[in-house]
Specification:
The protein is mostly helical. It has one domain. Helix content is 51%, strand content 0%. It has 3 helices and no strands. Helix 1 crosses helix 3. The model has no long low-confidence stretch (mean pLDDT 86).
Amino acid sequence: MQIHTPTEVAQRAGNKYLGVLVAAKFARYVNDFPRDRSLEEKKLTTRSLESLVSGELAYRLVRRRRQET
């Protein structure tokens, strides 16, 4: 099992907190797809962190629009 340090995540995402949020969001997205559970060897969060650190996972930030009152 490979360990991904916060420094590695921060290099790809800007900071470690954003990296964890991006990886978690991607893991939730992948979880929606049907898959064969007998072939799984890694958790989805681990696989998504690996994708982020290796550069396979591309993302962009979308600013929230403020609601006009």
